[in-house]
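B., you asked whether I could sanity-check this one before it goes into the benchmark set. Here's the sequence:
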Amino acid sequence: MKLIALDVGTKRIGVAKADSKVRIAIPYSAVEVDGTEFEKIASLARAWDINSFVLGLPRNSQGEETEQSRYVREFAKDLKRAIPSAKICFQDESLTSVEAEKRLKSRKKGYKKGDIDSEAATIILQDFLEEKTGKTTSRATSARHKSVKATKPRRSMAAIFVVLAILGIGAAAGYGYYRYNLRPVADVDCETVDADACDDMLFSVESGMGVSEIADGLKEAGLIRDSLVFQIYFRLNSNGKSLKAGEYQLNQAMSLNEITDLLLKGGSENVFSLTIFPGENIFDIKKRLMDLGYTEEEVETGFSAKYDDASYTWIFEGRPEEATSYEGYIYGETYEFYRDDTVETILETTFREMAKALEANDLKAKFEAHGLNLYQGITLASIVQKEANNATDMAKVAQIFYNRLEQGWTLGSDVTTIYAIDLVDPDRLSGMSEEEKINFDSPYNTRKPGMIGLPFGPISNPGIEALNAAATPDESATEFMFFLTGDDGLMYYSSTEEGHLQNIQEHCQQLCGLAL
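And here's what the prediction gave me:
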């Protein structure tokens, strides 16, 4: 398995990568925190074909999480939004930057601050690989046996010391205390008694949470009697398994071992995950919702409802009154919902995530700087999303569309023509010729001669990369007026129609011959 490690800071993010088969972490250039860090990390992940990340989770000398730890956890959530398919693990770390600087100094070569961050990421990844494989490599850090990895040994020793102390006081008393804390907080039979303790409460386990953190959360929620006993019980009975992230319905009448068994098996059956991928349209999403068990009537009711919560309705600014579709606003992310949540609840959740993404990246102001309102900016981003498959090409494609708009040309986008036809003939039963498709009369068809400007509205639900590309296009592409995706998957650009035809001849014999 290939891995990317990140040493997350507020100014820079150290990057390292490794293959678990080789078990040697290699540093990469640090990424500046400038608003485009997630885009850059996503680009690296695509280039390296990696979607597994290890994030260093700082702890102090007592093994406790710090303010920086909380910053890293929030960063992980944002990273998951930027890369929905990302698998994220945390690696406890302490003083890795100090150790990294020592390493660099010992090499007696010049280095920059970014080099320290990337070396720190290398240490984090090396420690992670060693812990998971149980094998030490030549790059192992000596600090790993000192302060850097103090947290986990301390926890393990704490559990051992408690057990020894209990045994020292007396085997019978210690065993009795242990058994007592395995019992439910409320000793009632929920099948025969109607008690508040039988009411389920939602308990969340987030990806990357450690056993001690989960135990503390259970104790704070009043679901177990003693967090340390939970940790001891888990270590004795987990058989090497780990507690799984998810949403759980737990109550105070459940014993500690019942709770542990549930956390080892996985989230409640009452909860389901829904992943919406950037570039999907509302027809894709409607079908997935019906596959999940929602009726066609429930789906259509949700998609035709009026939404008026001011916390997110500002994202519809500039949307024409006659527009009835929510195409473009269903933000790509992995969500979790209850089985009895309505389609309205699902859509509202995606709208709120869209609002967060737009606000966090100041996209409204950036679109306005290019003469577009928010609706127009999202519309352009939805086309860019379908035309290119990485942040670099998206930014170039966006600039080309701006060039064509400025010159009064049609956008000439095939994906808009496809969307226009699919709106009225999704099964392609009409048998239109290619010429008829190009001339198809629709406010979405930007290939139709004389169709100047943006289409009527979005043609897909753009992700953050496409939104950022449409808001901050690549100005180095101002000379280009044409682009295409070649048979090799790469994109080719040209300034003239002659150059475009040449690119088709040299790079696009198969794809460019496909029917719309």
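One thing to flag: Residues 135-154 have pLDDT under 50 and may be disordered. Otherwise nothing jumped out at me.
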